[in-house]
Structure formats: C-alpha cells, structure tokens
Design brief:
Strands 2, 4, 5, 6, 9, 10 and 11 form a 7-stranded mixed β-sheet that branches. Strands 1-3-8-7 form a 4-stranded antiparallel β-sheet, with no helix packed on it. β7 and β8 form a beta hairpin. The termini are far apart. Helices cover 0% and strands 60% of the residues. With 119 residues, it is mainly β. It has no helices and 11 strands.
Length: 119
C-alpha cells in the first residue's frame, strides 16, 4: 500500500498564495505520475495538475499561469504553488499517484487538504 499525505491548505484572501505538499510513502517500487485534483463544494472532483515521472507537466486551463506543480523524486513528494488565488479555487485538494507495486500499477489518493479563498 501507498500512503499519500497532503499538507499546506488553509484560509487565504483573494489574490493571495498558498503552497501545498504531498508526501508518498509505503511499500512500492516507484512512484509514476503524480497529480493534484480538487473538489469544490457541490461539484465533482476535477483535475488540476499532473507531473509525470519523467518531467511532463500539464495543467487545467483554469489554473494555468497561476499554479505551479513541482516534484522531488528523491523524497517522493509533489508540491503545488498556488498564486493569485480566486474564490473559485476554494476546494479540498487531493493528491493522486500511480505507484508500481510488484509489477502492477495502482492508483492511490490522499485524504485531502482544504483551501478556502475568502475575504
């Protein structure tokens, strides 16, 4: 099993910044793709950003130019710097990772960290 633990959420004013982190641990050969998703109140969980194991990066259109995803493979951690936050960024942010375990790729989720953007 792989455990994903997010941290860094909180309350911030519109236009402010927050940095999220996600640490992966457990019995795995390697972590492949890592992603951030978010789930706003009353809405479906949506993709935010992706960081492949070889460095490929992709963002949802709604966060391009404001959010930056980065990764530390040695520490099995992923980060997301969120700038110019808007009220519509309010959501629970989830870390997601594909891990290689005994030759099989499995997907895991963290418990989420809450981000509230409000004045």
């Amino acid at each position: 099993q792989v455990q994903l633990v997010e941290s860094g959420g909180g309350l911030v004013q519109p236009g402010g910044s927050l940095s999220l982190s996600c640490a992966a641990s457990g019995n795995m050969s390697s972590i492949l793709t890592m992603r951030w998703f978010r789930e706003a109140p009353g809405k479906q969980r949506e993709f935010v950003a992706h960081h492949g194991s070889r460095g490929s990066i992709n963002y949802a259109d709604s966060v391009k130019g404001r959010f930056t995803i980065s990764r530390d493979n040695a520490k099995n951690m992923i980060y997301m710097q969120m700038n110019d936050l808007k009220s519509e960024d309010t959501a629970v942010y989830f870390c997601n990772a594909d891990a290689l375990i005994s030759g099989t790729t499995r997907t895991f989720w963290g418990q989420g960290t809450e981000v509230t953007v409000s004045s």
